[in-house]
Write a structure and sequence with these properties.
Shape: flat
Distance between the termini: 8 Å
Helix content: over 70%
Radius of gyration: 15 Å
Largest sheet: none
Strand content: under 5%
Order of helices and strands: HHHH
């Protein structure tokens, strides 16, 4: 169970880092750049802990899928980026894929 707590924290750290990456303006702004480095460092450390007990494919599916959706939400709220209908469909498919893995896959660490 701790693996999924670590995974959730890793995803949050990655989303914060990715959001700060845009704010860093190509690493020309100090504090957003510092946030990027710390956020990704923490995210990868936590992901490494997750991989002790969760298969890499499953962990990465959650990491990437939920990260994409959450970064899109941050983009919408913070940066005013509005996804078009095909983007929303793609995001729904990503979420669906993560749900299928969690609910139906015997490889997933339930």
């Amino acid at each position: 169970m701790m693996a999924f707590v670590y995974l959730a924290l890793a995803i949050v750290a990655e989303v914060v880092a990715t959001s700060a990456l845009k704010a860093s303006d190509g690493f020309t702004r100090l504090w957003p750049s510092v946030t990027v480095v710390i956020g990704y460092g923490l995210a990868f450390y936590l992901l490494a802990l997750v991989l002790r007990s969760v298969p890499v494919g499953i962990a990465y599916a959650f990491w990437a899928g939920l990260g994409i959706v959450l970064v899109t939400l941050v983009g919408l709220v913070v940066y005013g980026e509005r996804p078009d209908p095909p983007a929303l469909l793609g995001l729904a498919m990503i979420v669906g894929g993560v749900v299928v893995i969690q609910v139906f896959s015997s490889v997933s660490a339930h």
